[in-house]
Design a protein that fits this description.
The protein is 32% helix and 28% strand. The strands form three sheets. It has a 13-stranded antiparallel β-sheet with strand order 18-17-16-15-14-13-25-24-23-22-21-20-19, with helices on one face. The chain has 20 helices and 25 strands.
Amino acid sequence: MKAKIPAFIVLFLMAVGVNAQIDRSVMPKPGPAPKITLEVPDEFELKNGIKVLVVENHKLPRVSYTLTIDNKPITEGKKAGVSSLLSAMLGNGTTTISKDEFNDEIDFLGASLFFGAQSAYASSLTKYSDRIVELMADAAMNPLLTKEEFEKEKEKLLESLKSEAKSVDAIAGRVGGALSYGKKHPRGEFTTEETVNNVEFGDVLAFYEKYFNPNNAYIVVVGDVKSRDVKKQLSKYFGKWEEAAGVDVTIPEPAPNAQYTQINFVDMPNAVQSNISLTNNVDLKMNDEDYHSVLIANKILGGGFNSYLNMNLREEHGYTYGARSNVGTSRWNASRFTAGASVRNAVTDSAVVETLKEINRIKTEPVETDALTNAKAKYVGDFVLALERPQTIANYALNIKLNDLPKDFYSTYLEKINAVTKEDVQRVANKYFKTENARVIVVGKGSEVLENLEKTGIPIKYYDTYAEPTEKPVFSKPIPEGVTAQSVIKGYIAAVGGEDNLKNVNTVLMNADVTIPGAPYKPTAVMKQMAPNKSSMELMIEGMGTVMKQNFDGENGYQEGQGQKIPMGETEVNSRKEEKGLYPELYIDASTITLESVATIEGKDVYKISVANSDGPADVRYYDVETGFLVRTEETSEASGQSIVTVTDFSDYKEVNGVMMPNTMKVTTGPQSFEFNMTDIKINEGVTEEDFK
């Protein structure tokens, strides 16, 4: 069946990202660095060792409390995930207050209360502060940790891991950390289904007893309160929290940097674009003399819209929506420099080469005066804006303590930023941006990107999705004798119901629940089709109504969303007019199709067939070797001068009126994906001509 979703998805994504087209190339001229006078928080210590910082701010009748337990990084090993489970279970009641009563009271007070495995945060109106602190302290000292809640959160964590299994970005992050630090380092280990299944309820209790205690605790209070009142309040509720036995944690040394520049490749057959991340470990602390120079160097390289990387990969070449770099700091033996982007498969090799080029540029060429001036101006502006938030003052004070910074670190911050020279930028770029010892971690579709990556001349090592060394993947298998593009198409027609049944399909009505990863809402969709070529689709959100709509009446069409109604372009209209029915395989011209190879998708062999288009790049369709079903399509379109590939995956085929219909469709365009799970499919009922007017 022809899925008329790609143009709709592209419109939705372009509407969301339209603001990215604003011209940011002109930076206001910076003035002199303002003199910074920072308010000093009031400090005191409870008898059990908890250190408290209070920032009074009486503009609004609100107050917040942030608990930070400053333990060293912890390695969880074979039970990785235990801290995530504890984090999910904390803050859901106490030994004296049930979960429902606890959460209902917080809602009634209009307050917020969140817990992490070694942290907590609460906020409320000042008049309710005493009660919210009491609840926070009770939940910290007497949490309601039950076997039932443990099993529930464990199942949710396992489901979350399963959903990440096909995420290119999630796998890139996992492999990047593991290769950079080593799997036995706190920053290199990762959670898997196996490690979560190793965790027992008793492990969560033991982790809580060992690490969630006041030994290394700080509480930061910000808001409409008096310091003396806070001292009484915290002494009353947190003062009885007993210290625990000290824990001596040994942090292993991180893995060494690569001996030479190399590509570490992870094959993801479902990837519609590649995740590229050049990385090397750095030893940089906030109290190092190089710190402010590194901030400026990174800002120029990849820390903003006008950076070297973004102007090259996005603005000049159109490889990506955005390219960035980052330099981390750590007081615990290592952090990382990273630079990269998510790019189209076809330009993966070029993006790697251009990324190396820009990093080597900042290492070998003095930066331009304007670039240096603009980077400093951006830091000055951000710093001054941040000072308007009272929470910033508290965070700065805590940073000074945690990172062993001089007391004037933030009051002299802008002076040190403005003192950075071109020579400083080039010096620290050579010291910390180690292209000669970098890993270029590429997670992508090997069948489309590896051949060109090999042409770069950069040595390639291969890893699986869990950072284990592996052999170079094999991407195609011999085509069985006698199998042709025409025979694959005939096999598909037979598999989904036969030619007669498919020709009798005049209308299709599909209702679906839509999942958009990371979205706070869950839309629904109604899709209607009528032979030979009419179609409509509406995306709706509860409480908002229809948010996007696409319609084609056989002669003309439009897409509507974000308050705009945009007519379909001439190319798309002509393409739709040429359609002869709801199943293109019935009418496909044998001269336009080519059986390219036998490939693999999700561990299953598929026939890859390209379908030539007169008005653009060929479409690609994949048919399951065993079942004959269509499992994936790849279509290329143009939007805002960029070539965009939309991948649609079809699965969970079920019979409707003698025809096999996919009940799940996942549509991926660039970094975004939509999953359609059908709740109802009707053939030859529920659709009329009026639906397309």
